[in-house]
Design a protein that fits this description.
Structural class of chain B: mainly alpha
Shape of chain B: globular
CATH class of the largest domain in chain A: Alpha Beta
Helix content of chain B: over 70%
Number of domains of chain A: 2
Distance between the termini of chain B: 25 Å
Helix content of chain A: 25-40%
Shape of chain A: elongated
Order of helices and strands of chain A: EEEHEEHEHHHEHEHEEHEEEHEH
Largest sheet of chain A: 6 strands, mixed
Largest sheet of chain B: none
Strand content of chain B: under 5%
Oligomer: heterodimer
Distance between the termini of chain A: 35 Å
Strand content of chain A: 25-35%
Largest interface: A-B, 35 and 28 residues
Radius of gyration of chain A: 25 Å
Radius of gyration of chain B: 19 Å
Number of strands of chain B: 0
Number of strands of chain A: 14
Order of helices and strands of chain B: HHHHHHHHHH
Number of helices of chain B: 10
CATH superfamily of the largest domain in chain A: P-loop containing nucleotide triphosphate hydrolases
Strand order of the largest sheet of chain A: 6-7-8-3-9-10
Chain lengths: 308, 253
């Protein structure tokens, strides 16, 4: 699949001397949902701001559907819709006026039917004459999304879309993102809620301290980096792991009642069968057995921690 | 040229003026009327004619200029500072609009508002004193040129300002004294020798003098110089705006 957004060698050093991004390379494929994960201050928002034209990059090039974001900024920016993290709207404008304004700002001819559809899809239609200042936080968030969608973008950036958002709105939003994807819109979302990436993304990129440390298909990432754990509830507590089992990566719980075996499920011989055979042979009996997959969250924490 | 964007911004700016009609239109009209009552009638009745013009009529061009300058600056500076302050400027910066289009829309909006205001004050003044406009074309030319120039100046202040205090600073500390000392209420020929020379360094003198000439055909300094000074100030503002946009100063990091 050809990439719709191509970021190469992008660095950003602010006037204060703080380096927010170091030589970032990233290609986003047409029509995918890409989740950019990273702790606070990792450079997620700076990267988005550069692509959208809000922050100037120090080095590197960015193209949007083949259009350079500096030389051909009109074509590049027309394709992009941005929902920033902060709720920043002109408080005294009505919902209807501000969404139509956004459409005009992006050079699109007025289309009241389309704006109405966007507002209806986001359950904002009853509020169309309300001033932004009178809306609840969740409604304001919907309004920001409506503004971003008003000019029919092909790429939608959602910067921390569900931070401080209630469950209902979060689910509505995920639903909306899936609908947009069906229409062929490419979606890039940043988040530090792993569950969000886990539930929605096709691919995941991890950014930490201004560097992209990994870009991977989500399923593969979980498969590749995912470790499995086998937990054995022992019938009789042990005081220590017997010598004979030292070649297994075993951990004994403090009370001695639980043995945990961590293994790589990709390995040729994960060693589960042999462990159980050896335990039986060694006379260690267990009452119960359980296996757990590591979540994206654990993978992420491990990745970020591994960095010096 | 993204005309739709220019039109969208312009419309929002005009809509704000009508939403805050009390603040943007009615309050300047009231304060102008007060000037007429205080200066025109109460004090003016004791002042003899200046250059053959009754004092009440003499102060009309100056009063219009006074409002034109302060309103152009405050309209334009607020229009660009407010989105910066609340953060909604992200949308403008991420939109496919050029800097030129941004300036045309914001400065156009601010200038339109202050021109409308100037004409309203003119209409209000005609209720108090008999008015006579000798050069209507030049009157409009000065009105438009001044509104555009000072809206540009306000736009620069709005971009430069990092706080509401800074936003008020320049209009309050520089513009208001300059306009009051710019010959709105007197002819600079009435000043003692040295002060007349000092006054010539005040750019507002040229605006008011030229504008008054378009009404009564009489001026403190020659019209050519007035026009020249206004154009020079406009050119300086354009140059600063061009520099701001080339460097992204205080807009894009």
């Amino acid at each position: 699949m050809p990439s719709i957004l191509s970021i190469s060698g992008v660095s950003k050093t602010y006037a204060t001397g703080f380096t927010a991004l170091k030589e970032v390379n990233l290609d986003i494929q047409r029509g995918e949902i890409f989740a950019l994960l990273g702790p606070n201050g990792a450079g997620k928002t700076t990267l988005i701001s550069i692509v959208c034209g809000i922050v100037n990059r120090s080095t590197g090039t960015v193209t949007v559907d083949g259009h350079d974001i500096s030389k051909d900024y009109r074509a590049a920016r027309s394709l992009i819709g941005l929902v920033p993290q902060e709720l920043t709207i002109d408080a005294f404008e009505s919902v209807w006026a501000t969404v139509n304004y956004s459409r005009g700002l992006f050079g699109k001819p007025a289309n009241h039917g389309f704006v109405e559809k966007v507002l209806r899809d986001l359950s904002l239609w009853d509020k169309k004459d309300a001033k932004a200042i009178t809306l609840s936080g969740g409604m304001k968030r919907r309004l920001m999304i409506a503004k971003a969608l008003s000019h029919e973008p092909r790429i939608l950036f959602l910067d921390e879309p569900t931070a401080g958002v209630d469950v209902e709105l979060r689910q509505d939003m995920w639903e909306m993102v899936r609908r947009l994807r069906e229409d062929g819109v490419t979606i890039i979302l940043t988040t530090h809620y792993i569950e969000e990436a886990e539930a929605m993304a096709d691919r995941v990129g991890v950014i930490n301290r201004g560097e992209i440390i990994l870009v991977e298909n989500k399923a593969e990432l979980m498969h590749k980096l995912g470790r499995k754990r086998l937990v054995l509830e022992l019938r009789n507590p042990l005081t220590a792991i017997p010598e004979a089992f030292s070649h297994y990566a075993l951990e004994l719980s403090p009370d001695g009642g639980q043995l945990t075996y961590t293994y790589d499920n990709q390995a040729e011989r994960p060693g589960v069968a042999s462990l159980i055979r050896d335990l039986e042979a060694g006379g260690i009996q267990f009452r119960d057995i359980d296996t757990q997959n590591s979540s994206l969250e654990e993978i992420f924490v491990n990745l970020v921690r591994r960095e010096p | 040229m993204n005309f739709r964007a220019v039109w969208a911004i312009y419309r929002v700016e005009m809509a704000r003026a009508f939403r805050t009609v009390l603040q943007s239109i009615i309050s300047p009209v009231i304060s102008t009327s007060l000037y007429f009552v205080v200066f025109g009638s109460a004090i003016g009745s004791r002042i003899t004619e200046i250059d053959g013009i009754s004092y009440g009529a003499f102060i009309v061009p100056g009063l219009i200029m006074l409002s034109l300058l302060t309103q152009s600056i405050s309209n334009a500076s607020f229009a660009i500072y407010f989105p910066k302050f609340v953060g909604s400027i992200y949308e403008l910066l991420s939109a496919p609009v050029s800097y030129l289009e941004i300036v045309i829309a914001y400065v156009g909006g601010a200038a339109t508002k202050s021109i409308i205001l100037g004409l309203i004050i003119l209409a209000t003044a005609s209720l108090f004193v008999p008015l006579h406009i000798e050069h209507p074309f030049w009157m409009l030319a000065f009105l438009i040129l001044t509104a555009v120039t000072f809206s540009l100046f306000g736009f620069i202040i709005g971009i430069w300002a990092k706080s509401f205090e800074q936003l008020q600073l320049v209009p309050l500390l520089i513009i208001t004294p300059l306009t009051f000392l710019g010959g709105s209420f007197y002819s600079i020929n009435m000043l003692p020798g040295i002060w007349r020379t000092v006054t010539l360094f005040n750019p507002v003198v040229y605006l008011i003098s030229g504008f008054r000439w378009s009404f009564y055909g009489k001026s403190d300094v020659s019209v050519g110089i007035s026009l020249g000074m206004t154009v020079v100030f406009l050119a300086v503002c354009i140059a600063i705006v061009a520099w701001i946009f080339r460097t992204g100063y205080r807009l894009r990091n």
